[in-house]
Design goal:
The chain is mainly beta. The chain has helices spanning about 80-95, 100-105; strands spanning about 5-10, 20-25, 30, 40-45, 70-80, 120-130, 130-135, 140-145, 150, 155-160, 165-175. A six-stranded antiparallel β-sheet has the order 3-4-5-11-6-9, with no helix packed on it. It has a three-stranded antiparallel β-sheet with strand order 8-7-10, with no helix packed on it. Strand 3 and strand 4 form a beta hairpin. It is globular, with a radius of gyration of 17 Å.
Length: about 180
Amino acid sequence: MGKPIRRVVTGHNAEGKSTFILQDRAPRTFSRGPGSAVVTDLWETRFCPADNRGDEDVTDHPYRLPPPENGSVFRIIDYPPDRERVAALERERAGRDDGSGRAALLDRGNPRHPGFHKTKSVDYVIVLSGEIYAMMEDGEVLLRPGDVMIQRGTNHAWSNRGDEPARLAFVLIDAAPPQ
């Protein structure tokens, strides 16, 4: 796993003045086991427009891959190299649903990569470190630190063919499916 992520969240105090409500290590980290990607959820909205009232930690629940209906999720994912991760993905494809919602989104028949999946979301992706291939059904692109991608409800996979983990930041926003 990569360096722990420090999360700073702003809000409003009882007098309505701006303040810092959270300054800590992001508490919600999820992994399916050895070789799996490590997901750290940083924040979530459950409505659009978002509700900025209160000081509740909205990530205080079990991990789910898709964003909440009519909401969004901001997360960091650390992808190990495929030589470690592919076996974990194969176990995931063959296993039972872990409650994260990912099992229903997997493209189990895709021969190109066991990580192909499709979410009902628009995803803003920023590569923070490492290199990773964004794979579509028709092609692939190598993404490097600083590159961004907008993923719009497509069947896709992430393939780290390097020797070092790749760290990506994601904002997933609930969206209507393309069809």
